[in-house]
Q: What sequence folds into this?
């Protein structure tokens, strides 16, 4: 390869997360990485680097290089906050009781409907920056706090605008089937009509969503209602994701696996049969330890059974005002280990290659391999175990998005 390349990163230890390379991190020590046109064109031991003429060289000074982190499940765009509700739950009220008493998601819906698009943008950008400062280069943002046509569109447009004005990749999911809006009290099937006949077609026309999500739960929608949303999404050629078995077993995961969903998220209450169905369909398990922690849940998802069945396991923040007001993906790695028994390497896989798979993006990112995006983070650490082990002080030394330096000043 005598030709030039845009960038050469040398003198680094690469945690490629490539499952074809031996070891939990797919590590290549004393490596070099060549980048052209925003993509990795060569990666391997530095001593094997063929002649090349880079326009720019980064000396990694022996630091570790990982894929850019991916947060595959957030509700980052919303108005208001729910601090008062947090105090009520500490006082003994359950999440369901608060929701049934008109609080919960519906209180954030009121605040989000009342906020202008500009206000929503201003409220959401600091949450985005918090994740980016941790090395997040791709994230997913859901709607779901509008529950009417105009506000669902307002939320999704805000997410697209955040992507236009920040050096980060953002994909979106329409989660209009998040909760029943007060104006449809007792008329859930009619609200599902609105989603299938008006909201999803309008979202698709404006290409505002890359997937469709739904809350299939005792305080959300039934399997039959969610199946209708899945059918409508398929008609629009949009992939689906499901908030499933978070608070009880409902049959949501079985429905999602049968539909070939990209992912099922939460899944604390899934059965052994659900695990096999996910293994069969290739549906990714997205674990959300922050919501488990915040809701002081005690039933953990069956991680060992998922691993034994070969189900792909991702980790995410579920950043939202109610069940996880925590803008830290690194803390989720730590919680994934401490609360769900993952190893540090499995936690990093959960926020890189598995998270990419949960978004249908594994052909473009999540692993350091030739042909994939040069989304990479340089870390001043001795071992990648430190990413799940310590929270707060260990910050990225450099963040590259498509080979471009986007490290915040
Ligand atoms: N499950 C959750 O934990 C979040 N949404 C969902 O479907 C909670 C959202 C909120 O409480 O605002
Ligand atoms: Fe969620």
A:
């Amino acid at each position: 390869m005598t030709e030039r390349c845009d960038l050469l990163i040398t003198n680094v230890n690469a945690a490629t997360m490539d499952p074809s390379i031996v070891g939990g991190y797919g590590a290549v020590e004393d490596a070099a990485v060549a980048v052209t046109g925003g993509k990795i064109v060569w990666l391997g031991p530095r001593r094997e680097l063929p002649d090349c003429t880079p326009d720019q060289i980064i000396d990694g000074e022996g630091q570790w290089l990982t894929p850019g982190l991916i947060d595959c499940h957030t509700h980052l765009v919303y108005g208001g906050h729910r601090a008062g509700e947090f105090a009520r739950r500490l006082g003994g009220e359950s999440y369901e009781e608060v929701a049934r008493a008109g609080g919960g998601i519906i209180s954030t819906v009121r605040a989000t409907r009342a906020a202008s698009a500009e206000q929503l943008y201003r409220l959401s950008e600091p949450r985005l920056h918090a994740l980016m400062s941790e090395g997040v280069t791709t994230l997913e943002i859901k709607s779901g706090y509008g529950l009417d046509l105009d506000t669902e569109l307002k939320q999704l447009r805000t997410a697209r605008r955040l992507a236009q004005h920040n050096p980060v990749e953002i994909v979106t999911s329409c989660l209009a089937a998040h909760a029943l809006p007060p104006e449809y009290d007792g008329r859930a099937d009619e609200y599902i009509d609105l989603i299938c006949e008006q909201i999803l077609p309008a979202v698709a026309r404006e290409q505002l969503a890359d997937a469709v999500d739904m809350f299939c739960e005792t305080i959300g929608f039934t399997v039959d209602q969610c199946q209708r949303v899945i059918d409508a999404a398929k008609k629009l050629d949009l992939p689906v994701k499901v908030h499933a078995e978070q608070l009880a077993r409902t049959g949501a995961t079985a429905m999602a696996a049968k539909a070939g969903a990209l992912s099922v998220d939460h899944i604390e209450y899934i059965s052994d049969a659900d695990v096999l169905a996910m293994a069969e369909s290739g549906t990714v398990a997205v674990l959300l330890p922050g919501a488990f922690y915040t809701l002081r849940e005690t039933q953990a998802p069956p991680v060992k059974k998922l691993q034994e069945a070969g189900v792909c396991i991702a980790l995410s923040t579920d950043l939202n005002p109610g069940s996880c007001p925590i803008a830290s993906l690194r803390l989720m790695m730590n919680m994934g280990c401490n609360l769900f028994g993952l190893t540090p390497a499995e936690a990093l896989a959960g926020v890189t290659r598995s998270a990419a798979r949960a978004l249908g993006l594994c052909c473009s990112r999540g692993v350091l391999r030739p042909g994939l995006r040069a989304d990479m983070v340089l870390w001043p650490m001795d071992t990648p175990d430190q990413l799940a082990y310590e929270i707060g002080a260990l910050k990225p030394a450099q963040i590259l998005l498509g080979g471009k330096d986007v490290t915040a000043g």
